[in-house]
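Hello,

Following up on my earlier ticket. Below are the two sequence lines again, exactly as submitted.
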Amino acid sequence: MQKVLICDLKKYIGQEITLRGWLFNKRSSGKVIFVILRDGTGYLQCVYFKGNVSGETFDAADKIGQESSIEVTGKVKEEPRAEGGYELDATDLKVIQNTHDYPITPKEHGIEFLLDNRHLWLRSKKQVAILKIRHRIVKAIRDFFDDKGFTLMDPPILTPNAVEGTSTLFETKYFDLGSAYLTQSGQLYAEAGAMALGKVYTFGPTFRAEKSKTRRHLTEFWMVEPEVAFADLNDDMDLAEEFLEYIVQTVLKNNIDELKTLERDISKLKNVKKPLPRITYDEAIEILKKKNIELEWGKDISGADETIISNQFDRPVIVHRYPAEIKAFYMKRDPENPKVALAMDVLAPEGYGEIIGGSQREDDLDELLKRIKEHNLPQEAFDWYLDLRRYGSVPHSGFGLGLERTVSWICGLDHLREAIPFPRMIYRNTP
RNA sequence: UCCGCGUUAGCUCAAUGGUAGAGCAUUCGGCUGUUAACCGAAGGGUUGUAAGUUCGAGUCUUACACGCGGAGCCA
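Thanks for your patience. The regenerated structure is below:
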Protein backbone atom coordinates (compact mmCIF):
# COMPACT_ATOMS: atom_id res chain seq x y z
CA MET A 1 0.00 0.00 0.00
CA GLN A 2 1.46 3.36 -1.01
CA LYS A 3 1.49 6.16 1.54
CA VAL A 4 0.76 9.43 -0.23
CA LEU A 5 0.15 13.08 0.54
CA ILE A 6 -3.09 14.90 -0.23
CA CYS A 7 -1.26 17.37 -2.49
CA ASP A 8 -0.24 14.44 -4.76
CA LEU A 9 -3.71 12.88 -4.95
CA LYS A 10 -4.40 13.47 -8.62
CA LYS A 11 -1.61 11.06 -9.53
CA TYR A 12 -3.48 8.23 -7.82
CA ILE A 13 -7.01 8.41 -9.23
CA GLY A 14 -8.56 4.95 -9.25
CA GLN A 15 -5.87 3.49 -6.99
CA GLU A 16 -6.17 2.31 -3.43
CA ILE A 17 -3.86 4.31 -1.20
CA THR A 18 -3.18 5.09 2.45
CA LEU A 19 -2.91 8.58 3.90
CA ARG A 20 -1.98 9.74 7.39
CA GLY A 21 -3.00 12.85 9.19
CA TRP A 22 -5.52 14.35 11.56
CA LEU A 23 -9.29 14.52 11.68
CA PHE A 24 -10.18 18.05 10.61
CA ASN A 25 -13.93 17.65 10.86
CA LYS A 26 -16.57 14.95 10.62
CA ARG A 27 -20.17 14.76 9.45
CA SER A 28 -22.37 11.73 9.55
CA SER A 29 -25.75 10.65 8.32
CA GLY A 30 -26.52 7.31 9.90
CA LYS A 31 -25.07 4.88 7.40
CA VAL A 32 -22.46 7.21 5.94
CA ILE A 33 -19.68 9.13 7.70
CA PHE A 34 -17.71 11.92 6.05
CA VAL A 35 -14.25 12.14 7.58
CA ILE A 36 -12.31 15.25 6.57
CA LEU A 37 -8.62 14.40 6.74
CA ARG A 38 -5.93 17.05 7.08
CA ASP A 39 -2.27 16.16 6.48
CA GLY A 40 -0.55 19.53 6.24
CA THR A 41 -0.57 19.50 2.46
CA GLY A 42 -4.32 19.68 1.98
CA TYR A 43 -7.76 18.45 2.98
CA LEU A 44 -9.54 15.31 1.80
CA GLN A 45 -13.07 14.05 2.32
CA CYS A 46 -13.03 10.31 3.10
CA VAL A 47 -16.39 8.55 2.84
CA TYR A 48 -17.21 5.59 5.09
CA PHE A 49 -20.34 3.75 3.93
CA LYS A 50 -21.71 1.24 6.38
CA GLY A 51 -21.97 -1.52 3.77
CA ASN A 52 -18.47 -0.97 2.36
CA VAL A 53 -16.40 -1.35 5.54
CA SER A 54 -16.31 -3.73 8.50
CA GLY A 55 -18.47 -3.02 11.51
CA GLU A 56 -15.42 -2.26 13.64
CA THR A 57 -14.10 0.23 11.08
CA PHE A 58 -17.46 1.97 10.84
CA ASP A 59 -17.71 2.20 14.63
CA ALA A 60 -14.17 3.55 14.82
CA ALA A 61 -14.98 6.22 12.24
CA ASP A 62 -18.10 7.08 14.23
CA LYS A 63 -16.14 7.55 17.46
CA ILE A 64 -13.08 9.58 16.45
CA GLY A 65 -12.99 13.15 17.73
CA GLN A 66 -11.67 16.30 16.12
CA GLU A 67 -7.84 16.27 15.66
CA SER A 68 -7.51 12.55 16.32
CA SER A 69 -4.48 11.18 14.49
CA ILE A 70 -5.56 8.61 11.92
CA GLU A 71 -4.47 6.54 8.95
CA VAL A 72 -7.07 6.11 6.20
CA THR A 73 -7.11 3.69 3.30
CA GLY A 74 -9.31 3.75 0.24
CA LYS A 75 -9.68 4.41 -3.44
CA VAL A 76 -9.21 7.92 -4.85
CA LYS A 77 -11.86 9.27 -7.16
CA GLU A 78 -12.82 12.58 -8.67
CA GLU A 79 -15.90 13.94 -6.96
CA PRO A 80 -17.34 17.38 -7.65
CA ARG A 81 -19.42 17.26 -4.46
CA ALA A 82 -16.28 17.10 -2.32
CA GLU A 83 -14.27 20.19 -1.49
CA GLY A 84 -11.08 20.11 -3.53
CA GLY A 85 -12.63 17.91 -6.22
CA TYR A 86 -11.28 14.59 -4.93
CA GLU A 87 -12.66 12.07 -2.49
CA LEU A 88 -11.54 8.86 -0.89
CA ASP A 89 -13.85 5.85 -1.04
CA ALA A 90 -12.62 4.57 2.29
CA THR A 91 -12.11 0.88 3.01
CA ASP A 92 -10.13 1.03 6.24
CA LEU A 93 -9.31 3.28 9.18
CA LYS A 94 -6.51 2.99 11.70
CA VAL A 95 -6.81 5.23 14.72
CA ILE A 96 -3.37 6.24 15.95
CA GLN A 97 -4.74 8.32 18.80
CA ASN A 98 -8.38 9.08 19.43
CA THR A 99 -8.92 12.41 21.13
CA HIS A 100 -11.89 14.42 22.32
CA ASP A 101 -12.36 17.90 23.75
CA TYR A 102 -10.05 19.57 21.23
CA PRO A 103 -10.28 23.16 22.40
CA ILE A 104 -10.58 24.90 19.03
CA THR A 105 -13.99 24.01 17.67
CA PRO A 106 -15.27 24.78 14.17
CA LYS A 107 -16.93 27.91 15.52
CA GLU A 108 -15.74 31.38 16.22
CA HIS A 109 -13.28 32.13 19.00
CA GLY A 110 -11.91 35.24 20.64
CA ILE A 111 -8.38 36.38 20.04
CA GLU A 112 -7.22 35.86 23.63
CA PHE A 113 -8.30 32.22 23.57
CA LEU A 114 -6.73 31.64 20.17
CA LEU A 115 -3.44 33.18 21.27
CA ASP A 116 -3.44 31.07 24.45
CA ASN A 117 -3.84 28.07 22.14
CA ARG A 118 -1.50 29.31 19.42
CA HIS A 119 0.26 25.92 19.34
CA LEU A 120 -3.06 24.36 18.28
CA TRP A 121 -4.41 27.35 16.35
CA LEU A 122 -1.56 26.80 13.86
CA ARG A 123 -3.46 23.72 12.61
CA SER A 124 -6.42 25.73 11.32
CA LYS A 125 -6.87 26.42 7.63
CA LYS A 126 -6.15 30.10 7.70
CA GLN A 127 -3.04 29.76 9.84
CA VAL A 128 -1.67 26.97 7.64
CA ALA A 129 -2.16 29.23 4.61
CA ILE A 130 -0.34 32.11 6.33
CA LEU A 131 2.58 29.88 7.35
CA LYS A 132 2.93 28.63 3.78
CA ILE A 133 2.92 32.15 2.37
CA ARG A 134 5.43 33.28 5.00
CA HIS A 135 7.68 30.43 3.92
CA ARG A 136 7.29 31.43 0.27
CA ILE A 137 8.19 35.02 1.07
CA VAL A 138 11.29 33.94 2.99
CA LYS A 139 12.35 31.73 0.10
CA ALA A 140 11.70 34.52 -2.41
CA ILE A 141 13.84 36.88 -0.34
CA ARG A 142 16.75 34.44 -0.26
CA ASP A 143 16.42 33.54 -3.96
CA PHE A 144 16.25 37.20 -4.98
CA PHE A 145 19.46 38.16 -3.25
CA ASP A 146 21.23 34.95 -4.14
CA ASP A 147 20.44 35.43 -7.85
CA LYS A 148 21.84 38.96 -7.65
CA GLY A 149 25.16 37.90 -6.17
CA PHE A 150 24.50 38.92 -2.59
CA THR A 151 26.13 37.01 0.27
CA LEU A 152 24.13 36.22 3.37
CA MET A 153 25.92 37.50 6.44
CA ASP A 154 24.55 36.83 9.91
CA PRO A 155 24.99 39.71 12.33
CA PRO A 156 25.28 39.15 16.08
CA ILE A 157 22.07 39.07 18.07
CA LEU A 158 23.76 40.06 21.32
CA THR A 159 25.20 43.53 20.90
CA PRO A 160 27.11 45.80 23.25
CA ASN A 161 25.04 48.94 22.63
CA ALA A 162 22.10 50.53 20.87
CA VAL A 163 22.49 50.82 17.11
CA GLU A 164 20.46 53.96 16.65
CA GLY A 165 20.45 55.12 20.21
CA THR A 166 16.70 55.69 20.22
CA SER A 167 14.74 52.51 20.72
CA THR A 168 14.38 50.75 24.03
CA LEU A 169 16.34 47.51 24.01
CA PHE A 170 16.05 44.22 25.81
CA GLU A 171 18.91 44.10 28.27
CA THR A 172 20.63 41.02 29.59
CA LYS A 173 23.62 40.33 31.82
CA TYR A 174 26.75 39.34 29.96
CA PHE A 175 29.25 37.65 32.31
CA ASP A 176 31.90 40.12 33.51
CA LEU A 177 31.39 42.51 30.61
CA GLY A 178 28.29 44.14 32.02
CA SER A 179 25.19 44.40 29.90
CA ALA A 180 24.42 43.11 26.45
CA TYR A 181 21.38 43.97 24.39
CA LEU A 182 19.30 42.03 21.90
CA THR A 183 19.84 43.52 18.49
CA GLN A 184 17.32 45.89 16.98
CA SER A 185 19.04 45.87 13.57
CA GLY A 186 21.94 44.15 11.85
CA GLN A 187 22.63 47.13 9.69
CA LEU A 188 25.89 48.47 11.06
CA TYR A 189 27.37 44.97 10.82
CA ALA A 190 25.98 44.64 7.30
CA GLU A 191 27.90 47.77 6.37
CA ALA A 192 31.11 46.07 7.49
CA GLY A 193 30.09 43.09 5.37
CA ALA A 194 29.42 45.24 2.31
CA MET A 195 32.98 46.61 2.53
CA ALA A 196 34.23 43.00 2.58
CA LEU A 197 31.93 41.36 0.04
CA GLY A 198 30.36 44.19 -1.98
CA LYS A 199 26.77 43.06 -1.66
CA VAL A 200 25.46 41.40 1.49
CA TYR A 201 22.20 40.90 3.29
CA THR A 202 21.34 39.97 6.83
CA PHE A 203 18.19 38.10 7.75
CA GLY A 204 17.21 37.29 11.28
CA PRO A 205 15.19 38.18 14.34
CA THR A 206 15.36 41.65 15.83
CA PHE A 207 14.01 42.94 19.11
CA ARG A 208 12.35 46.11 20.34
CA ALA A 209 11.43 46.57 23.97
CA GLU A 210 9.16 49.53 23.26
CA LYS A 211 5.78 49.38 24.90
CA SER A 212 3.99 49.53 21.59
CA LYS A 213 0.55 47.98 21.79
CA THR A 214 -0.87 48.08 18.30
CA ARG A 215 -1.68 45.75 15.43
CA ARG A 216 1.55 46.83 13.73
CA HIS A 217 3.98 45.88 16.50
CA LEU A 218 5.76 42.84 17.88
CA THR A 219 8.63 42.83 20.35
CA GLU A 220 10.40 40.12 18.33
CA PHE A 221 10.23 40.30 14.55
CA TRP A 222 12.27 39.29 11.53
CA MET A 223 14.03 41.75 9.32
CA VAL A 224 16.00 41.37 6.09
CA GLU A 225 18.62 44.05 5.46
CA PRO A 226 20.57 44.28 2.20
CA GLU A 227 23.62 46.56 2.09
CA VAL A 228 25.41 47.48 -1.14
CA ALA A 229 28.80 49.13 -1.67
CA PHE A 230 29.02 51.77 -4.40
CA ALA A 231 25.26 52.37 -4.35
CA ASP A 232 23.48 55.69 -3.90
CA LEU A 233 19.90 56.39 -2.82
CA ASN A 234 18.54 55.90 -6.36
CA ASP A 235 20.22 52.51 -6.59
CA ASP A 236 18.71 51.69 -3.21
CA MET A 237 15.19 52.58 -4.40
CA ASP A 238 15.73 50.61 -7.63
CA LEU A 239 16.70 47.58 -5.57
CA ALA A 240 13.75 47.95 -3.20
CA GLU A 241 11.13 48.14 -5.95
CA GLU A 242 12.57 45.19 -7.87
CA PHE A 243 12.71 43.25 -4.59
CA LEU A 244 9.09 43.94 -3.69
CA GLU A 245 7.90 43.08 -7.19
CA TYR A 246 9.75 39.78 -7.03
CA ILE A 247 8.35 38.83 -3.62
CA VAL A 248 4.73 39.64 -4.47
CA GLN A 249 4.78 38.09 -7.95
CA THR A 250 6.43 34.94 -6.58
CA VAL A 251 3.65 34.54 -4.00
CA LEU A 252 0.98 35.15 -6.68
CA LYS A 253 2.60 32.51 -8.86
CA ASN A 254 2.89 29.84 -6.18
CA ASN A 255 0.27 30.47 -3.52
CA ILE A 256 -3.04 31.24 -5.23
CA ASP A 257 -4.81 28.53 -3.19
CA GLU A 258 -3.57 29.98 0.10
CA LEU A 259 -4.55 33.52 -0.94
CA LYS A 260 -8.03 32.22 -1.74
CA THR A 261 -8.27 30.56 1.67
CA LEU A 262 -7.42 33.94 3.16
CA GLU A 263 -10.01 35.62 0.89
CA ARG A 264 -7.33 38.04 -0.24
CA ASP A 265 -8.26 40.50 -3.00
CA ILE A 266 -5.36 39.73 -5.34
CA SER A 267 -6.12 42.46 -7.87
CA LYS A 268 -4.26 44.87 -5.61
CA LEU A 269 -1.27 42.53 -5.37
CA LYS A 270 -1.08 42.12 -9.13
CA ASN A 271 -0.31 45.83 -9.42
CA VAL A 272 2.93 45.46 -7.50
CA LYS A 273 5.33 45.96 -10.40
CA LYS A 274 8.14 48.38 -10.96
CA PRO A 275 8.42 51.25 -11.29
CA LEU A 276 6.90 52.24 -7.97
CA PRO A 277 5.84 55.86 -7.59
CA ARG A 278 8.49 57.97 -5.86
CA ILE A 279 7.61 61.12 -4.00
CA THR A 280 9.61 63.35 -1.71
CA TYR A 281 8.66 64.10 1.88
CA ASP A 282 7.74 67.61 0.69
CA GLU A 283 5.37 66.14 -1.91
CA ALA A 284 3.86 63.90 0.77
CA ILE A 285 3.09 67.02 2.82
CA GLU A 286 1.42 68.54 -0.27
CA ILE A 287 -0.77 65.44 -0.68
CA LEU A 288 -1.84 65.73 2.96
CA LYS A 289 -2.51 69.44 2.53
CA LYS A 290 -4.91 68.68 -0.33
CA LYS A 291 -6.76 66.41 2.13
CA ASN A 292 -6.88 69.28 4.63
CA ILE A 293 -4.26 67.77 6.90
CA GLU A 294 -1.53 70.15 8.03
CA LEU A 295 1.77 68.42 8.70
CA GLU A 296 4.43 70.77 9.97
CA TRP A 297 7.69 70.36 8.06
CA GLY A 298 10.10 68.38 10.19
CA LYS A 299 7.47 66.19 11.87
CA ASP A 300 7.32 62.49 11.11
CA ILE A 301 4.43 61.10 9.09
CA SER A 302 1.98 59.28 11.38
CA GLY A 303 0.42 55.91 10.67
CA ALA A 304 -2.93 57.44 9.77
CA ASP A 305 -1.27 59.95 7.41
CA GLU A 306 0.74 57.14 5.78
CA THR A 307 -2.55 55.46 4.90
CA ILE A 308 -3.90 58.64 3.32
CA ILE A 309 -0.75 59.02 1.23
CA SER A 310 -0.62 55.38 0.13
CA ASN A 311 -4.31 55.49 -0.83
CA GLN A 312 -3.39 57.93 -3.61
CA PHE A 313 -1.55 55.13 -5.43
CA ASP A 314 -2.42 51.69 -6.78
CA ARG A 315 0.82 50.10 -5.58
CA PRO A 316 3.44 50.67 -2.86
CA VAL A 317 4.83 54.20 -2.83
CA ILE A 318 8.37 55.30 -2.00
CA VAL A 319 8.72 58.45 0.09
CA HIS A 320 12.24 59.86 0.12
CA ARG A 321 14.30 62.78 1.43
CA TYR A 322 12.89 63.07 4.94
CA PRO A 323 13.98 65.81 7.32
CA ALA A 324 17.38 64.74 8.66
CA GLU A 325 16.33 65.61 12.21
CA ILE A 326 13.88 62.72 12.46
CA LYS A 327 16.19 60.17 10.88
CA ALA A 328 19.08 58.09 12.19
CA PHE A 329 22.59 59.48 12.64
CA TYR A 330 24.19 57.29 9.96
CA MET A 331 22.06 58.58 7.09
CA LYS A 332 23.80 60.83 4.57
CA ARG A 333 22.54 64.38 4.11
CA ASP A 334 21.44 65.44 0.65
CA PRO A 335 24.30 67.57 -0.77
CA GLU A 336 21.67 69.74 -2.50
CA ASN A 337 19.73 70.32 0.71
CA PRO A 338 21.49 69.45 3.97
CA LYS A 339 18.20 69.70 5.89
CA VAL A 340 17.05 66.42 4.38
CA ALA A 341 18.53 62.95 4.64
CA LEU A 342 19.03 60.59 1.69
CA ALA A 343 16.47 58.30 3.29
CA MET A 344 13.50 56.45 1.87
CA ASP A 345 10.54 54.52 3.20
CA VAL A 346 8.27 52.23 1.20
CA LEU A 347 4.63 52.44 2.26
CA ALA A 348 2.49 49.41 1.50
CA PRO A 349 -1.02 49.97 0.11
CA GLU A 350 -4.31 49.40 1.93
CA GLY A 351 -3.15 50.95 5.18
CA TYR A 352 -0.37 48.47 5.92
CA GLY A 353 2.13 51.27 6.39
CA GLU A 354 5.89 51.25 6.32
CA ILE A 355 7.36 47.94 5.23
CA ILE A 356 10.78 49.19 4.14
CA GLY A 357 13.05 51.84 5.58
CA GLY A 358 16.43 52.59 4.05
CA SER A 359 19.01 55.18 3.19
CA GLN A 360 22.32 56.07 1.66
CA ARG A 361 24.81 55.96 4.53
CA GLU A 362 27.10 58.78 5.57
CA ASP A 363 30.49 57.79 4.12
CA ASP A 364 32.50 60.83 5.25
CA LEU A 365 34.36 60.32 8.53
CA ASP A 366 34.13 63.93 9.75
CA GLU A 367 30.44 64.23 8.95
CA LEU A 368 29.71 60.96 10.74
CA LEU A 369 31.70 62.07 13.81
CA LYS A 370 29.64 65.26 13.85
CA ARG A 371 26.37 63.29 13.71
CA ILE A 372 27.43 61.01 16.55
CA LYS A 373 28.12 64.07 18.70
CA GLU A 374 24.82 65.71 17.74
CA HIS A 375 22.92 62.57 18.76
CA ASN A 376 24.86 62.34 22.05
CA LEU A 377 26.07 58.85 21.21
CA PRO A 378 29.19 57.40 22.84
CA GLN A 379 31.85 57.68 20.17
CA GLU A 380 34.02 54.87 21.53
CA ALA A 381 31.18 52.39 20.96
CA PHE A 382 31.29 53.24 17.28
CA ASP A 383 35.07 53.08 16.83
CA TRP A 384 34.89 49.94 14.75
CA TYR A 385 32.07 51.44 12.66
CA LEU A 386 34.09 54.60 12.07
CA ASP A 387 36.97 52.44 10.81
CA LEU A 388 34.76 51.64 7.81
CA ARG A 389 35.09 55.38 6.94
CA ARG A 390 38.82 55.47 7.65
CA TYR A 391 39.86 52.58 5.43
CA GLY A 392 38.52 52.72 1.90
CA SER A 393 35.18 54.45 2.49
CA VAL A 394 32.77 54.34 -0.45
CA PRO A 395 29.20 55.52 -1.04
CA HIS A 396 26.90 52.75 0.06
CA SER A 397 23.22 52.16 0.73
CA GLY A 398 20.82 49.64 2.11
CA PHE A 399 17.41 49.11 3.59
CA GLY A 400 15.50 46.92 6.00
CA LEU A 401 12.27 45.09 5.25
CA GLY A 402 10.02 43.95 8.09
CA LEU A 403 9.06 40.37 7.33
CA GLU A 404 5.87 40.21 9.42
CA ARG A 405 4.53 43.49 8.05
CA THR A 406 5.15 42.17 4.54
CA VAL A 407 3.45 38.84 5.33
CA SER A 408 0.57 40.70 6.95
CA TRP A 409 0.11 42.94 3.91
CA ILE A 410 0.35 40.19 1.30
CA CYS A 411 -2.02 37.95 3.30
CA GLY A 412 -4.39 40.81 4.07
CA LEU A 413 -4.27 40.20 7.83
CA ASP A 414 -5.66 42.63 10.34
CA HIS A 415 -2.93 42.02 12.91
CA LEU A 416 0.81 41.27 12.81
CA ARG A 417 0.47 38.54 15.43
CA GLU A 418 -0.88 36.09 12.86
CA ALA A 419 2.10 36.66 10.55
CA ILE A 420 4.58 34.86 12.83
CA PRO A 421 4.16 31.37 14.34
CA PHE A 422 4.62 32.39 17.96
CA PRO A 423 4.19 36.14 18.37
CA ARG A 424 5.93 38.01 21.15
CA MET A 425 4.03 41.06 22.32
CA ILE A 426 4.38 43.31 25.31
CA TYR A 427 1.81 41.44 27.40
CA ARG A 428 2.36 37.97 25.95
CA ASN A 429 5.37 35.68 25.65
CA THR A 430 3.57 32.32 25.72
CA PRO A 431 3.16 29.71 24.36
C1' U B 1 3.33 56.15 29.95
C1' C B 2 -1.61 57.98 28.45
C1' C B 3 -6.84 57.27 26.54
C1' G B 4 -11.02 53.92 25.56
C1' C B 5 -13.37 49.08 25.97
C1' G B 6 -13.86 44.36 28.14
C1' U B 7 -13.80 39.87 31.90
C1' U B 8 -20.85 35.19 32.83
C1' A B 9 -20.49 27.08 31.07
C1' G B 10 -14.56 24.25 27.56
C1' C B 11 -15.60 28.28 23.44
C1' U B 12 -18.75 32.56 21.39
C1' C B 13 -22.33 35.43 23.66
C1' A B 14 -27.48 36.69 26.22
C1' A B 15 -29.84 37.99 30.86
C1' U B 16 -35.24 46.06 33.53
C1' G B 17 -31.53 45.43 40.71
C1' G B 18 -35.82 39.94 41.62
C1' U B 19 -35.52 31.57 39.74
C1' A B 20 -28.21 32.52 35.56
C1' G B 21 -29.85 31.07 29.59
C1' A B 22 -28.76 29.95 24.09
C1' G B 23 -25.57 28.16 20.08
C1' C B 24 -21.13 25.36 19.38
C1' A B 25 -18.06 21.56 21.89
C1' U B 26 -18.66 16.87 25.08
C1' U B 27 -21.77 12.20 26.18
C1' C B 28 -26.09 9.29 24.45
C1' G B 29 -29.82 8.41 20.55
C1' G B 30 -31.73 9.21 15.15
C1' C B 31 -30.76 9.91 9.86
C1' U B 32 -27.25 6.35 3.04
C1' G B 33 -24.26 12.56 0.19
C1' U B 34 -22.83 15.75 4.28
C1' U B 35 -20.26 20.94 3.10
C1' A B 36 -18.97 25.34 10.24
C1' A B 37 -24.56 19.21 8.18
C1' C B 38 -29.21 18.45 10.61
C1' C B 39 -32.97 16.52 14.53
C1' G B 40 -33.82 14.82 19.88
C1' A B 41 -31.94 14.26 24.98
C1' A B 42 -28.31 14.73 29.02
C1' G B 43 -24.21 16.59 31.88
C1' G B 44 -21.71 21.18 32.48
C1' G B 45 -21.66 27.85 36.65
C1' U B 46 -18.12 30.47 43.60
C1' U B 47 -20.71 35.54 36.83
C1' G B 48 -11.95 37.91 37.07
C1' U B 49 -10.53 39.14 42.66
C1' A B 50 -11.70 41.94 47.14
C1' A B 51 -14.71 45.23 49.64
C1' G B 52 -19.19 48.34 49.68
C1' U B 53 -24.60 50.05 48.73
C1' U B 54 -29.30 47.11 49.00
C1' C B 55 -34.53 43.12 51.76
C1' G B 56 -32.01 41.23 47.34
C1' A B 57 -26.08 42.41 42.94
C1' G B 58 -24.09 39.07 36.78
C1' U B 59 -26.38 44.09 36.81
C1' C B 60 -24.89 49.87 40.94
C1' U B 61 -20.02 52.04 43.56
C1' U B 62 -14.66 51.71 44.68
C1' A B 63 -9.96 49.38 44.38
C1' C B 64 -7.00 45.70 42.21
C1' A B 65 -5.69 41.89 38.53
C1' C B 66 -5.75 40.28 33.62
C1' G B 67 -6.81 41.10 28.53
C1' C B 68 -8.14 43.85 23.91
C1' G B 69 -7.88 48.29 20.84
C1' G B 70 -5.60 53.02 19.97
C1' A B 71 -1.86 57.21 20.81
C1' G B 72 3.32 58.06 21.23
C1' C B 73 7.64 55.16 19.20
C1' C B 74 8.81 52.18 15.30
C1' A B 75 9.74 47.60 10.89
